[in-house]
Amino acid sequence: RHCTDIICCVIFIVVILGYIALGIVAWVHGDPRKVVYPTDSYGQFCGQRDTLNENKTILFYFNILKCASPVVLINLQCPTTQLCVSKCPDRFATYIDVQASYRYRPDQWNYFRQFCKPGFNNPRKSVAQVLRDEDCPSMIIPSRPFLKRCFPDFSTKNGVLTVANQTTFKDGRGKTRNVTDLREAANGINNVLDARSVGMKIFEDYAISWYWILIGLFIAMMLSLLFLVLLRFTAGVLFWIFIFGVIGIIGYGIWHCYWEYDHLKGIPGSDLTVYDIGFQTDFKVYLQLRQTWLAFMIILCGVEVIIILMLIFLRNRIRIAIALLKEGSRAIGYIMSTLFYPIFTFLLIAVCISYWAVTAVFLATSGEPVYKVMANQTLCKYANLTCDPETFNTTNVTKLCPGAQCTFAFYGGESLYHKYIFIFQLVNAFVFLWLVNFAIALGQCTLAGAFASYYWAYRKPADIPLWPLFSSFGRAIRYHTGSLAFGALILAIVQLFRVILEYLDHKLKGTQNSFTRFLLCCLKCCFWCLEKFLKFINRNAYIMIAIYGKNFCTSAKEAFFLLMRNVVRVAVLDKVTDFLLFLGKILVAGGVGVLAFFFFTQRIPVFAKEVPMLNYYWVPLLTIIIGSYLVAHGFFSVYAMCVDTLFLCFCEDLERNDGSTAKPYFMSASLHRILGKKKLSPKKA
């Protein structure tokens, strides 16, 4: 053994160190409290202790129409002045109306000015100047707090969207607008409120039933282990039962088609052709034609003949596939620790996901309030330049540009770091994909090394090395980190392109023309196929790396050509394995799901008193079904890796050895009997 793909290993380590540095920089600049707690235009948290906002826990938007959606609001990216208030507005009002009536209705002004900037109390100031300086909002509308932010209080009356039973409102700029203009600014808020209520009930159900959920997942784990053990004895039986069942069903279909064809004989109109009656929206019409049933019978006969011929000509390869499945079950029986390795892979991926999510949140909350000079651009050279509201009044800008104000523009920043936050998010996503694929590659290479040590043991299990799983893991980390990182890098690049295409498709939806949609669809399809192909190549390359210790490119090339020389065996083994493992997943998830359904619906008398009182019994039920499927998938992924490794070893064994004393086969006796070759040379004692 020697180190492989050293350059990629060095690059991978440097990237990890850079990723850690990116996380540290994001943690220094970011503040995730912005996601939970709103901040005003001065960067102060609403409700923060020992500040002027201590009793003002809700965020108010001067012009909510500038906010595109609730997601934009929650992410603090709404380009309007934001103010902390103690409560949301409960009435319609405009600054124009309040200013006109403040002399004889001072209560209206006192109410309205609580939504103005702190300290502003000059109702005589002209409307144009107030709106220019953003001292007060042009309007207020009835709102209610959600996520500590004021949103329009929408309701539906006779199918019409309203706010406080009104369908129109004054925007404070001399126009009357429809409340539907507010819909985009607060799209889906009512649905989210309903979802919050449902979410609380679901959380309560989990708090009550978590114990029974764990019991259900434990039962799923035991059933998965039992199924893998039984495959050693039942793989062939299950497969042939399925095959003959399919043949029988198709045979019944042929008989039924012939019966319908013969039954329609002599009935008026049944001898017409499909061409004669043309296209009909009622497809039952076609079932009244003899020609339809004749076509069905011919198609089913063709399928039946193809299946029978495939069984005749591929019977030996099917027997090899079944023998490899049994051998895989036997190998796992000798190396039981491999069944629990997916837990380690899961923990690695969980760490990667957690680090990526935390870094993404800190990057997204790195923005600071940016203020710019608001003035007449034709007269003031400082217009749209950044400014500091704390020192603005002491600068010469107010003298050179009368009426200029330092107002909030957006959340972000103009430093080098803030300008490249989007690039940092892409880097965060790319390295995340790379690390996840590396964790998966490490698991595949480790398992492949363990199962290869089983196959190449001349006397099984006596020659199997001690602790094969840990030895394989050590070899993979010590010698082949670079090769695994190289394979993971290629896959991560393709996946990043797929993510970008999905993002573009989402952003351009509704505005793209037919050619753009077609082009995006073709690109998405091509990259999906490329990702599937690369996963297949990488998986087998990792197996060859585990066996021979060569670099990634050499291992991928040798694995590819080895598989191409045995392409029929590959196809047969792949389909047989897929069927049996899919059957196992369905049996485990379905069996545990049925048991959970009878338990939570109190249909098991013995446990009727133990059933917890739930808001939705489907919450733990679906959790158990999905969890059982994932548990079964975790165990069966080990089995699939075992079968793939044994198959490549089997192909290598056939090409490198001939069964003689000098070159004995390492395959099991059952595989050797199926091949019908020379007898195995006597194994040394």
Report on this model:
The chain has helices spanning 6-29, 33-36, 70-74, 95-101, 106-112, 127-133, 189-263, 274-277, 290-313, 315-334, 341-364, 397-400, 416-419, 421-455, 468-479, 481-508, 514-548, 552-564, 567-600, 618-656, 669-675, and strands spanning 58-61, 82-85, 93-94, 139-140, 143-146, 149-152, 154-157, 160-163, 168-170, 176-178, 368-374, 386-387, 405-412. It is mainly alpha-helical and 685 residues long. Among the domains are: 58-189, no CATH class; 368-412, no CATH class. Strand 9 and strand 10 form a beta hairpin. Helix 1 (6-29) crosses helix 14 and helix 11 runs antiparallel to helix 14 (421-455). It is globular and about 105 Å long. Mean pLDDT is 81; it is low at 68-77, 188-193 and 678-685.
